[in-house]
Amino acid sequence: MSTEPSSTADGTQLSAAELQARVEELEETVADLEADDDQQKMTIVATQGSFDMAYPPLILASTAAAFGWDVVVFHTFWGLDILHEEKSQNLQLSAVGNPNMPMPNALAALPGMDRLATRMMQSRIDDNGTATIEELIDLSLEQGVELQACQMTIELMDYDEDDFYDDVTVGVGAATALQHMAESDIQLLV
């Protein structure tokens, strides 16, 4: 390497040591950019807010984030209730129309059966040591998952932005969600 000063684009003279330092800085920047390109991205759209449907997007999101993925979960329509602090405490599992429920639809349609099915599932979750919905929300946020609340749905359901868990990103529009989806390696609709 020459010990003669080199000129930059603006005509500034750099010594060999300054030039070497600049080259090393640029190499680090390029390495960082290449590392970012290798990061997997996932977008999940959560549209259902029943007790049993709150689990899949939160489990998938927190697991992917634990692997270092960039994860966004966009909650819209009934899926928004998962992020609503009050409503998420009372999500129900519907026994009607669920082919995996061990009861016929005629019985499942009786008053109180959704509450019973929800209690049965909550009991199984407790017995198994599975995290609660609130714990999964906290874990997801701690792992760096961006939990987004759809602005149009907030307005449609007449919710207040303060109704949601802390650190939930509120006021996200469909265009923002679509942009992340377009950049994602995996897109899921739950």
**Range of helix content:** 40-55%
- Number of separate helices: 7
Order of helices and strands: EEHEHEHHHEHEHE
Give, in spatial order, the strands making up the sheet with the most strands: 6-5-4-3-7
Which structural class do the helices and strands define?
alpha/beta
Describe it.
The strands form two sheets. This protein has a five-stranded parallel sheet, with helices on both faces. A two-stranded antiparallel ribbon has the order 1-2. The chain has helices spanning 16-38, 51-66, 105-108, 113-128, 133-142, 151-156, 174-183, and strands spanning 6-7, 13-14, 41-46, 70-75, 146-150, 169-172, 186-189. The model has no long low-confidence stretch (mean pLDDT 87). Helix 2 links the parallel strand 3 and strand 4. Helices cover 45% and strands 15% of the residues. It is an alpha/beta fold and 190 residues long. The radius of gyration is 24 Å and the shape is elongated. Helix 2 runs parallel beside helix 5 (133-142). It has seven helices and seven strands.
Briefly summarize what is shown.
The protein is of the alpha/beta class and 190 residues long. It is built from seven helices and seven strands.
Write the layout of secondary structure elements.
Layout: E1 6-7, E2 13-14, H1 16-38, E3 41-46, H2 51-66, E4 70-75, H3 105-108, H4 113-128, H5 133-142, E5 146-150, H6 151-156, E6 169-172, H7 174-183, E7 186-189
Parallel strand pairs: 3-4, 3-7, 4-5, 5-6
Antiparallel strand pairs: 1-2
